[in-house]
C-alpha cells in the first residue's frame, strides 16, 4: 500500500453505503443457495480434518473456520443486497479464511516445536572471546568483570597465557591475557625463576614500546588557528575627487 510507484484505484463507495442501509433497515435472513451446499460440506470436512491433524496448540485457533467462512460469505451477499450466498461468494470467502488459517498455523508453529537447549560456554571460551574482541591482547579489567572469574582462575586455563606488562619505569604493572599459540613466542610453561621473571618483564616492557611510538606518531598535531585565519582587512581609503580644471563635462548637455 505504501508505494509511490502504484496509485490506488478510485473506489465508489456509494453502492456499499446503500448496501449497508439495505442490510440494517430491517432484520434479514441470509441462506445458502442450493448450488453452494456441496462446497459448504467440503469446507466443513476440511475444517474437521485440519483440526484433528494439527496439534492442540494450533487447532484451537482454527476450530471455527467453517463458521467464519459462512459469515464472510453472508457479508459478501449483503454487500450486493442479496439474501442468498451463492457458490461464487462462498468460494471467495473460503479463499480468504483459508489464507488466514495458513497465517495462524505459521505463527503458532514455533510455540509447539521443542526448544533447543544451548550448551553454556566454558570459562576458557568466554576468556578467548574477550581476548579476540580486543585484538588478541586484553587486560584484566577488560576480561575479568565480563567472565565472572578471578585472575587466579584464568591463570589455571591451559589455553591462556598471562603476562605482566608495565607502561613505564614507575607505572603500575597490568596483567595481560593472550591466547596460547596465537603468537610464535608462546611456548609451554617453564619453571619460574627470578631471572626468567626479570626477562619476562623486560620483554613485556619492550613490546609496549612500539605501540607507544606508534601512538605518538598517530597522535593528532596541534595546529594554531592563526595560521589559517586571514588577517584583518583594512578599509580602502576613500577616493578623492580629481579637480575638473577647465574641462566641464556638463557643457556638452547645454
Could you characterize what this model shows?
The protein has 254 residues and is mainly α. It has two domains: 14-111, no CATH class; 123-185 and 194-217, no CATH class. Helix content is 48%, strand content 7%. It contains nine helices and five strands, in the order αβαααβααβααββα. The protein has helices at residues 14-25, 37-53, 56-59, 65-79, 87-112, 123-133, 140-147, 151-155, 194-218; strands at 31-32, 84-85, 138-139, 160-165, 174-179. The strands form two sheets. It has a three-stranded antiparallel β-sheet. A two-stranded parallel sheet has the order 1-2. Helix 6 packs antiparallel against helix 7. The longest helix has 26 residues, at 87-112. It is flat. The chain starts with 13 loop residues before the first helix and ends in a 36-residue tail after the last helix. Residues 184-194, 202-215 and 222-228 have low confidence and may be disordered.
Overall strand count: 5
The largest sheet has its strands arranged as: 3-5-4
| Poorly predicted spans | 184-194, 202-215, 222-228
Q: Percent of residues in beta strands?
A: 5-15%
* Rounded average pLDDT: 76
SSE-based structural type: mainly alpha
Helical residue percent band = 40-55%
Instruction: Tell me the overall shape.
Output: flat
**Mind summarizing the main beta sheet?**
3 strands, antiparallel
Rg is 43 Å
- Distance N to C terminus: 80 Å
Topology pattern, helix = H, strand = E = HEHHHEHHEHHEEH
Amino acid at each position: 500500500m505504501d508505494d509511490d510507484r502504484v496509485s490506488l484505484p478510485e473506489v465508489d463507495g456509494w453502492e456499499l453505503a446503500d448496501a449497508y442501509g439495505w442490510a440494517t433497515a430491517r432484520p434479514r435472513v441470509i441462506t445458502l443457495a442450493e448450488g453452494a451446499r456441496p462446497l459448504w460440506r467440503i469446507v466443513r470436512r476440511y475444517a474437521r480434518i485440519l483440526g484433528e491433524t494439527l496439534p492442540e496448540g494450533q487447532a484451537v485457533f482454527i476450530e471455527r473456520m467453517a463458521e467464519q467462512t459462512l459469515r464472510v460469505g453472508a457479508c459478501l451477499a449483503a454487500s450486493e443486497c442479496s439474501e442468498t450466498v451463492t457458490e461464487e461468494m462462498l468460494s471467495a470467502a473460503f479463499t480468504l479464511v483459508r489464507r488466514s488459517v495458513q497465517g495462524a498455523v505459521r505463527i503458532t508453529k514455533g510455540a509447539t516445536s521443542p526448544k533447543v537447549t544451548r550448551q553454556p560456554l566454558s570459562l576458557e571460551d568466554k576468556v578467548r572471546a574477550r581476548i579476540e574482541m580486543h585484538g588478541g591482547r586484553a587486560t584484566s579489567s577488560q576480561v575479568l568483570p565480563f567472565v565472572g572469574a578471578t585472575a587466579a582462575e584464568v591463570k589455571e586455563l591451559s589455553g591462556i597465557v598471562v603476562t605482566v606488562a608495565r607502561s613505564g619505569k614507575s607505572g603500575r604493572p597490568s596483567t595481560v591475557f593472550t591466547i596460547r599459540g596465537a603468537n610464535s613466542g608462546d611456548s609451554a610453561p617453564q619453571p619460574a625463576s627470578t631471572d626468567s621473571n626479570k626477562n619476562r618483564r623486560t620483554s613485556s616492557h619492550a613490546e609496549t614500546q612500539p605501540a607507544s611510538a606508534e601512538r605518538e606518531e598517530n597522535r593528532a598535531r596541534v595546529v594554531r588557528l592563526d595560521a589559517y585565519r586571514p588577517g584583518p582587512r583594512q578599509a580602502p581609503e576613500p577616493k578623492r575627487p580629481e579637480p575638473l580644471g577647465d574641462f566641464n563635462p556638463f557643457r556638452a548637455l547645454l
